[in-house]
Backbone:
């Protein structure tokens, strides 16, 4: 930590700040300049709040140097992490991995139909919610465990893996028994009870960025899971909330290369939630792959007009086919390939 | 719902949209203008997604008319709600109710000391966290149940009520047995499992606005709790995330009068989290009362320099005394009074 | 315009609103539903402020139907606009047009050196500022007219066109005599005096989206220029301001397909200003082309480490060469090609 | 400037960075810690871009220590600035100064009527636009010079001063001859040609914060004016753009105490533009005064229902009277008084 004193801060004040830092357990190195005195404080505790020093008399600015996350940082594994999802599918390798499927599992028939289509078109995972976080208490809340069963069977029948959302610590055991990847939704990115519970399972977790979460906060949430011993975390950019309301969210494509520099974890994009409108999904999916994403989450529905949730952002199977064809052209530009 | 067709949309397209709306269960009233045709669709289901119509060919815009929340809307109780907190303290009445105390309960001694001070200065509730949602897994996470016990005893000894945060459905029973008001933190505003669990208790809930939640989303979360039968919800503005980073959040003072118009529920402000800096707490607390807030949540610590969390935004007891004196001048300007 | 009355609004209030609308010059069609009455008001003036009706007693919501822009809307030219820049270069056609060059013209030698490099690599336009809008009054403000002269000569020598920024109405004549495309910076997007002056010239204008401008506001600013008779407007997405500060701005890639739907004008992206960091420029340039952009603005400097402004976001010539090679792979995925 | 090297950055890299800093003109002080080396660089030029160092190999973070503004900083005049507006009215003194009037001057009769009312109720300045920055080219653009004349006469007749907006450098001379305070609108906060022109006049300038401007950027724009020799700058908070759309903007009340700490310049609030809705103006005006604002800009119209612009956010004279009465109660809480 670097503590910058105000211009002309008197000797007494400087000494008080040094004493305070020492009492907090820091080693302090002083550097006296022409106008400013700078204090280097070594040995910061992970739970230290820089504002405690910032508000001391005579202090102009405090700069934290060590990142608050460690396990999630690129320095922890400079070569990058490849997460094995099962059946030889690897997230973070040369293949751009696509998860496709409906927003919610609606019926056995629906999910089998869609699974068959997306498997043929190159998807590796089947996505679909059995428990739905809905902002209105009056909306369809998902089929629950039967939905998970349909999802698993449809995936197995078509050689796919399963990713589905877990909403509460009480659901972790159930989900773990059905899915290959546990998804944490944007609204739960800072549900620390859930994150801690996921640190104890030994299945990959796909962690979505919260709508108002900074990149650093996303990495801190990954750190929660990893600090429990589960290192198979996949990050997901799904759009942030900004003043622009034409699209549901603003898909922060730049977060993809930023996260790849800061962290060793794989990063996927969800253009369906990121835009909320079917006609914007393909352009943003292409953009994400062109920017270097390791994978995609795409909502596909055999009959979006009658979907029970988020039909408006689901692709028709034909649109998904067209998108996959376009991605096959783009992926080599970034040294990747599609299935 | 009003469906506006594109200028010059042909008869066939209009008919297709009408048929679709009828098949969705709407009664449709058509109004044909010179350039635009407008369709009024009556009988919207609460889980209807307007985007499903918006994407139909020939549709220009869809406007939902009924609000997605009912129990939380002002129309449900035009006269406003006064929540009885216990011991005759009423939130939403003529008195501006102040909850004060440390960010976290740190020890029996600490909480007793602070409780004694704030009670004398006019606080009605003692606030303090026993379970702390911390963005870093390495930070102090609270004392747990012993913290609740200290909090209850300190409050009782000083004639105060207790408000404390509940983070997970599994904690609801425990919290309910110790506190008078259950607080839902900003990060949990859309934790629907928790909201549903709180709908079943019969204690007031203080619901904080999420950092990126719109006013409508806050009311939808209140609706979740109320739809379970618990109508004693208190809304709390605690700052939203914007591009301005000088303050930790941007306290959206205008949300106070806006919520008072849209909803019958009482609304309090939390200037401590809303600014994150001690020297900005008093100005914002005064602003909130001047704008019509029904109450305040203020962090006060007997020794902020050694607080285990959020010391930087905690007032010294003397600053709290000064603030209460200022609020006594301001409250009459809006027809209110302080304790 | 559609005016939705509150549920249960009495006959008298409805009549008052109707009378008011008629006095404002509207034709009013009334549609009485079970709970809500809806009024269709035809004949809105372009300068009408919907809030004037919204605040009337008994009104629940007002929905403007006609877009506030006309000339800039897709309906005005459904087939799309191709802007002829000169020398056969066309923005909005099948070729993705790249403008490259330094942030600021620094010297004759510098601009000639860069022009030679980027021309060989496939750029069609040379970019470079002669007048620089700098947020600090103490920063380098540009070479002025001599800079324009160097820019023109360097472009001509290398078969390039010139795009450069105009900051004030008083500079329009000067710029027009030197450049092929007049650029309006983000900070001037709502400088209406400047927009009006540009409506009177007969050269293409590249209009950058303001940092906090909605897509609709960008189109309204284009409308200002077009209403003066200059229809050759090129829109530019260059990043919006959000809470995320890791990148300088958040490049709103989704704005590209959105604008292509709402407007007939070509749209380019500026990943250099959009990210502010050299290592993020190439990923975002690829993303923009993959999303369908008609062109790119890329800062390239022969010696970014000694650039007088924005060196940190300028590509080295070798990085630009690499990027162009990648774009040649991507463009066919969206039916386009690079020069 | 403090340059923090990456953990484990080798000696060679550190030396390269030091050499580079020296070649940039800095004096460098090195401080070698257990894991990190920190370089203090003294003598930063005002136009220095920290990103140039940030991108060097081995550098982890660069922290600018000196603020980029000097004349606008509190350190420049620790005792604060009181701007003399004329007729003994002083902005920044003990009196909270109110400017009131219509959005736009519409006619001689209108402005005289309003001036008479607001003068009696305690306003000190008459506000009103003669040149209107309108986002649509089809909206009312103001009366021009005749509007200024009406404004001046109406003010003089009622013992008021005049504040009105200047939109372009070409209007500065004209405005200066009619008004007492020159207003710079939010859209022009970074119109540097205009700011520079205003640095040369010797009349107070009221500088509005841009919709997406940080507090630091507002102070940099003030610095532009002051660096030209005009020190009489009044800052104005008028709302920032956030994701919340219920109010037109989010009035950042916390900016008031923040600016008072960072700068010596007076700060006023504009709750009319800050909320865009008449019924929210009074609560936010009260909040601004309670937070310590030196003044207010309030839109008042004798007949808002027929106002040519922004009627929806204009108070009726009776509402303004009521507001002034409330402010008289609040002001003493912050050691101020109303006229």
Residues:
């Amino acid at each position: 930590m670097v503590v910058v004193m105000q211009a002309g801060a008197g000797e007494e004040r400087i000494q008080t700040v040094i004493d305070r830092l020492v009492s907090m357990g820091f080693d302090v190195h002083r550097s006296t300049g022409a106008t400013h005195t700078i204090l280097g404080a070594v040995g910061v505790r992970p739970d230290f709040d820089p504002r405690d020093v910032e508000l001391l008399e005579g202090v102009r600015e405090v700069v934290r140097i060590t990142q608050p996350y460690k396990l999630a940082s690129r320095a922890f594994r400079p070569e990058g992490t490849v997460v094995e999802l099962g059946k030889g599918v690897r997230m973070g390798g040369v293949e751009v991995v696509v998860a496709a499927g409906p927003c919610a599992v609606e019926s056995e028939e629906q999910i089998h139909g869609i699974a068959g289509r997306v498997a043929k078109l190159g998807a590796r995972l089947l996505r679909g919610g059995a428990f739905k976080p809905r902002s209105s208490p009056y909306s369809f809340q998902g089929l629950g465990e039967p939905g998970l069963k349909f999802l698993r069977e449809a995936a197995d029948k078509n050689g796919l893996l399963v990713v589905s959302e877990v909403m509460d610590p009480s659901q972790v055991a159930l989900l773990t028994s059905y899915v290959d990847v546990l998804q944490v939704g944007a609204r739960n990115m800072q549900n620390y009870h859930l994150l801690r519970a996921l640190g104890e399972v030994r299945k990959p977790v796909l962690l979505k960025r919260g709508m108002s979460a900074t990149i650093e906060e996303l990495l801190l949430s990954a750190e929660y899971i990893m600090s429990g011993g589960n290192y198979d975390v996949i990050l997901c950019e799904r759009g942030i909330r900004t003043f622009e309301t034409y699209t549901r969210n603003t898909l922060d494509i730049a977060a993809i290369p930023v996260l790849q520099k800061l962290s060793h974890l794989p990063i996927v994009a969800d253009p369906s939630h990121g835009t909320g409108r079917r006609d914007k999904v393909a352009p943003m999916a292409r953009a994400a792959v062109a920017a270097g994403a390791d994978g995609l989450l795409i909502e596909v529905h055999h009959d979006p007009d009658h979907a029970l949730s988020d039909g408006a952002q689901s692709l028709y199977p034909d649109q998904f086919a067209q998108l996959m064809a376009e991605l096959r052209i783009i992926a080599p530009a970034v040294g990747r390939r599609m299935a």
Summary: Chain D has a mean pLDDT of 91. Chain D is about 35% helix and 20% strand. The two ends of chain D are 46 Å apart (CA to CA). Chain D touches chain C through 51 residues (CB under 8 Å).
